[in-house]
Amino acid sequence: MNNYLKLEKIVKEVGNPYEETYFPKDGYIREILDNFQEEKLVSLGGRLIAKREHGKSIFGHIADISAKIQIYARLDISSLSYQLLKGLDIGDIVGIKGNLFKTRTGEITVLVKELKLLSKSLRTLPEKWHGLKDIETRYRQRYIDLIANVSTREVFLKRAKIINFIRDFFNQNGYIEVETPILHPIAGGASGKPFVTHHNATDSDVYLRIAPELYLKRLIVGGFDKVYEIGKSFRNEGISVRHSPEFTMLEAYCAYEDYNYMMGLCEELFSKLVKEFNHSSLLLNCQSKRIDFTPPWPRVSFSQLFKDEFGVLPDDEQSIVLDKICKKLNLSLSELSRSQIINITEDLIEKHYPQDKPTFVTDFFNWTSPLAKTKKGNPYILERFELFIGGIEVANSYSELNDPIEQRKRLLEQIKLEEDSGKIDEDFLLSLEYGMPPTAGLGIGIDRLIMILLDQSSIRDVILFPLLKPLPNDS
């Protein structure tokens, strides 16, 4: 009998389960297990994940987001509940009332006094659903992955806790959480190809934000000395185990500080995160690497790395630098994007430096970021760092350029060098003309950070619903 016919039978015999609007629960299953009291009457809800008949009794398990618990129904105690449970399928959602006891093997169990079907599962869970491994199913039908795999549920429960921890850290350090636009009239704030759409009411094209940077700096101008935002950014680029076109970023800005301050902030935040989510230890195992998060962390010079590897100098023209890199790596100029340079940097760090500690890469060439200040006395080097952990770029920071004249010049040069038809954000430049104090900015890739903290090999394993290529029959 298929599940639709079973539903019709259940509707005739005990009523329509979808008409139930409420079921009183005493809490999550984990709370009941942790506070076990013999013979205590409890009311629980969850999904039926196992069932086996034994004479005139039925054993089974129900589960919620916190844990699973054994249930036990007997024909002589509640004939109605016994018969209903007998006809249910794995995947059905039930409400149960009964008394707690321990079996001879010591397992906490609910002796069922009352059972209600709250939702009938019309789709049978995939074969071998328990511990589901099929990647396509796990990503495309995350709800099945969450039902089948405790480890998946744990990842996303911990993700929520990590983000809350980060939020608390910045709040306790005097930062104000803000929200800035997702739809931008001009694509800017970072390098990357934007998603574009059309807004009918204003008859204008708008872009999903590449980064919130320029709006957050406007708030610094307005007198908000410490601000941060955690939210989505979007780049219409490739997908890989480290890249997603939709990703979560934290950006923070602090007036009257520079990038050295942000180095210290990263060391403090990340070391506290590791201790909190790694059993109080600063030694974290991640993808066969053992990383020591004990501050201070080493600093590596980008300009020295590229001088040693490619023979380029900070005062070389950008075109000369790119040409030398392309020749040595046998790449075309069109292939050498900012992302590609970051990948090259990751490879060089892995090649020349041990991966047992997080590493700050400093001394970037001035043309790599038009929004960053150059070092005093050296106009070819930026006050900027990128943080690499286990060979992965996780954070980016610099002392923010606050000279409106120089900023306009840099943005115009970027458009010219990249042969970009993009526009300059005139309102951002206007805000700088009103005066922005010296400011330190920081961006953290939340998804990548969570990959490292939870030892996950792919960014799609820490995003609930990653963007995937449509199936052939998708409309």
What would you say about this model in short?
With 475 residues, the protein is α+β, with helices and mostly antiparallel strands.
Commentary on this structure:
The model has no long low-confidence stretch (mean pLDDT 93). Helices cover 33% and strands 26% of the residues. It has helices spanning 3-14, 29-34, 79-86, 135-140, 142-148, 150-172, 213-221, 259-277, 302-310, 318-329, 338-352, 404-417, 426-433, 446-453, and strands spanning 41-54, 57-63, 68-74, 93-102, 108-119, 176-177, 183-184, 196-199, 204-208, 226-234, 246-255, 283-286, 289-292, 299-301, 359-362, 374-375, 378-382, 384-389, 392-399, 439-445. It is built from 14 helices and 20 strands. It has two domains: 3-124, OB fold (Dihydrolipoamide Acetyltransferase, E2P); 147-461, Bira Bifunctional Protein, Domain 2 (BirA Bifunctional Protein, domain 2, 2-Layer Sandwich), CATH 3.30.930.
- Alpha carbon gyration radius: 28 Å
Provide the CATH superfamily of the largest domain: Bira Bifunctional Protein, Domain 2
User: Can you identify the CATH class of the largest domain?
Assistant: Alpha Beta
How many domain regions?
A: 2
Distance between the termini: 31 Å
Q: What is the CATH topology of the largest domain?
A: BirA Bifunctional Protein, domain 2
Largest sheet: 8 strands, mixed
Set down the secondary structure blueprint.
Layout: H1 3-14, H2 29-34, E1 41-54, E2 57-63, E3 68-74, H3 79-86, E4 93-102, E5 108-119, H4 135-140, H5 142-148, H6 150-172, E6 176-177, E7 183-184, E8 196-199, E9 204-208, H7 213-221, E10 226-234, E11 246-255, H8 259-277, E12 283-286, E13 289-292, E14 299-301, H9 302-310, H10 318-329, H11 338-352, E15 359-362, E16 374-375, E17 378-382, E18 384-389, E19 392-399, H12 404-417, H13 426-433, E20 439-445, H14 446-453
Parallel strand pairs: 3-5, 6-10, 14-15
Antiparallel strand pairs: 1-2, 1-4, 2-3, 4-5, 7-9, 8-9, 10-11, 11-20, 12-13, 15-18, 16-17, 18-19, 19-20
